[in-house]
Design goal:
The protein is mainly alpha-helical. It contains eleven helices and four strands; from the N terminus they run αααβαααβααβααβα.
Length: 236
């Protein structure tokens, strides 16, 4: 089988596992196995950890396949593309800083459980967070894109000075997966935050590709019965 096809199939398999473990059914299965409290505390850490390990396995497998060069740039052109890749890291780093690395990885929930404290609310998805007084704030890279953490992969994938058949297959599947994942996150955030997220969408912030515009105002939940606790519960 051609390297392009093998890489594409392996990447699709990674995406399928990653998606399956993010479903409500997978979380419910973990709760039945570990109990609700342990599952709530540890599942996010497990999910992030397995994602890193399976991605490392995918990378190692693809690296073992023969590859043909599609194009290779040298000199100033290569440096320019590398600079673009570094710039692509900015929304990733800024987005993780905004969300909180411990919160994103689920470490804060695991630490709280180990010390006998109440678990902090899990994030609805990789998006703006609701504050304790019921505000949905759009800060950092969330002013320019509703899904900046997913977008960050695009320049990292494509702005490579050496494109091979392996990379081309991975980039194509990976980019489609990031866009589809953003659509899934969009649905989860709409369910969790209701009208507040609808107002955020209508503020002019781009769905995926960052666009510059005025900073959106903080979005307040209109319904008095919608509290941060009830919204966090709905997002589980």
């Amino acid at each position: 089988m051609h390297t392009f096809a093998k890489t594409a199939i392996a990447t699709l398999a990674f995406a399928a596992v990653h998606s399956a473990l993010a479903t409500r059914q997978a979380k419910q299965a973990a709760a039945r196995l570990l109990g609700d409290e342990r599952s709530d505390a540890a599942y996010r850490v497990f999910y992030v950890g397995q994602g890193l390990l399976t991605f490392a396995a995918l990378t190692a497998y693809c690296a073992s396949l023969p590859a043909q060069t599609v194009y290779r740039l040298r000199g100033p052109g290569a440096l320019l593309l590398r600079a673009g890749q570094l710039a692509g890291l900015l929304p990733l780093v800024a987005g993780l800083r905004e969300v909180g690395l411990k919160r994103w990885a689920g470490v804060d929930r695991l630490q709280a459980w180990r010390h006998g404290r109440a678990l902090p609310a899990a994030p609805a998805a990789q998006g703006p967070e609701l504050t304790e007084d019921g505000r949905l704030t759009a800060a950092g890279p969330f002013r320019w894109s509703r899904h900046p953490l997913n977008f960050a992969g695009v320049p990292l994938f494509w702005l490579t000075p050496h494109m091979t058949t392996r990379r081309l297959a991975f980039n194509a599947i990976g980019t489609a997966y990031l866009v589809l994942g953003s659509l899934h996150e969009e649905a989860r955030l709409k369910t969790a935050y209701g009208d507040a997220y609808a107002r955020y969408r209508q503020s002019g912030v781009s769905f995926f590709w960052p666009t510059a515009h005025r900073r959106p105002d903080d979005v307040r939940l209109p319904a008095a019965g919608d509290t941060p606790h009830s919204i966090a519960q709905a997002s589980r």
